[in-house]
Amino acid sequence: EKGGYDYFMLKEIAEQPKAVADTLLGRIDAAGSLTLDEVRISPSELREVDKVVIVACGTAFHAGLIAKYAIEHWTRIPCEVELASEFRYRDPILDGRSLVIAISQSGETMDTLMALRHAREQGSKVLAICNTNGSTIPRESDAVLYTHAGPEVAVASTKAFLTQLVACYLVALYLGQVRGTKWGDEIGAVIRDLSQISGEVERVLDTMEPVRSLARSLADKNTVLFLGRHVGYPVALEGALKLKELAYMHAEGFAAGELKHGPIALIEEDLPVVVVVPSPRGRSVLHDKIVSNIQEIRARGARTIVIAEEGDEAVVPYADHLIRIPATPTLLQPLVATVPLQVFACELATARGNEVDQPRNLAKSVTVE
Ligand code: F6R
Q1: Environment class of residue 193 by beta-carbon count within 10 Å: exposed (0-12), middle (13-18) or buried (19+)?
Q2: Of 109, 227, 271, 289, which residue is least crowded by CB atoms under 10 Å?
Q3: Is the entire prediction scored with pTM above 0.90?
Q4: CA of 57 to the centre of ligand 1 (A)
């Protein structure tokens, strides 16, 4: 049932191009517009929304962090993202015009469920982004967008994460489409880019051998740091989470702009630091900033592992290891940038002799607090 793979995680990583395509299936019409009829929140209700609040845990929370950049950019609706375990125990300000999005692979995570109950008690509409048909979170929500990733068996989430991202982009673009924003043209173009993205994920998977051998060479390290900016920041957090849970290593993700505010003190000779580099096209200021961050850490001895777009030559002199990903629009880059980090964590864990599908102390679905 592992389809020839040693671990479910490897199988699920390999399934990502199909999973991503399945999340899009039937949701883009012939004219290139989105049809999310299954989202039973009417266009007029969506036009009334004045705030989006995303609640989730773990990897799903990282998808939510990325969604915030997309939602605010494409819709200009303020968006907050919060860990469900924090949200449910404070006194969040919500009302009938707030749209709460609960993201959960299993649909059974207790903290996320409690957060959505709390939101509904305040009169907010709740949209679930979920992978498990008929699970509790979608049943208790006003609407659900299923991710259609297929069953995810490995404890560490991979294909569910990529499809959560696609679902988040769909919701963001749909909100933009329904409300009409100044980004109208951009939305059409992004929908076209999204419909191509499965092939780009496939291309990344085809080039992972150097990432595997790099991972094996780092098996005796204690610490790996991850840096990113903009949507690359949650990607860094996700890379660090995967490494913690699978390789049991000290792994931390930082916003690259925060380096000088503390984390740079951690840099020492030969410390591996993975850097997720934004596209040099588009918002090139982000790119330039991160290139100087790479120079700063390298000057202090870091061993830089740079994930950068094909054709980005500016990073070459500062990369001890260079991992290439296809060029994508900035906001979609997490769909390709996360994949090498999954492979990296899986291979490092294997090299350290860990059980990849069932990491110690973890459960696939956290139905207790
Ligand atoms: C990490 C991982 C967990 C889950 C989290 C939420 O690889 O799998 O962090 O993402 O427990 O689970 P769901 O999405 O089922 O609510």
Answers
A1: middle
A2: 289
A3: yes
A4: 6
Query: Is 260 in the active site?
Result: no
Query: Could you identify the atom of ligand 1 that is nearest to the CA of residue 106?
Result: 15
Closest C-alpha to 46, from 146, 202, 187, 177: 177
Is ligand 1 within 6 A of the CB of residue 157?
yes
Are residues 112 and 86 in contact, defined by beta-carbon separation less than 8 angstroms?
no
How far from the centroid of its chain's Cα atoms is residue 318's Cα? Answer: 26
State the Cα–Cα distance between residues 259 and 300, nearest whole angstrom.
12
The complex's ipTM works out to 0.97
- Give the residue-averaged pLDDT of 42-69: 96
The pLDDT of 312-324, averaged and rounded, is: 97
* C-beta 342 within 6 A of ligand 1: no
Residue of 109, 147, 338, 369 with the most ligand 1 atoms within 8 Å of its CB, for mutation: 109
- The beta strands (E) that lie in 143-258 are given as 143-146, 223-228, 250-255
